[in-house]
Amino acid sequence: MSMYIRVKRQKTTVFLQVEPTDTVLEVKQKLQALLDKSPDKLQLLREVREASGQWLPLDDAKKLAELKVENDDVLALAYAQEDGGFERVKILAPGAEEEADGSGDAAAKQEAKPEEQ
């Protein structure tokens, strides 16, 4: 039975149709066709607890069903960096602007606008 998952990175969300029997590597191969990045340069992660901000990388050999990935679940996507590691997970809300130094949550730090008189 097919299901849909959302894969998010920064301001981008990709909706994928997958099977519970698909492996994480197969999901990365589907992303490769869309993003033009090889699967070894992609890392999929899952949040430990909803809204916890803690993400765990998923094993390429595991099936989605084994990882308890269900219909409409959200996975994070990270790209490989030049140093061999992967970037931190950063998912921005629609309309949020990234700060120049890349730190903090810009959406949560919007300046209060003075009221017009």
UniProtKB/TrEMBL annotation:
Positions of region (Disordered): 94-117
CDD domains: Ubl_ubiquitin_like
Alphabetical list of Pfam families matching this protein: ubiquitin (PF00240)
Domain (Ubiquitin-like): residue spans on this chain: 1-84
Biased composition (Basic and acidic residues): 108-117
Matching PROSITE patterns: UBIQUITIN_2
Protein name from the UniProt record: Ubiquitin-like domain-containing protein
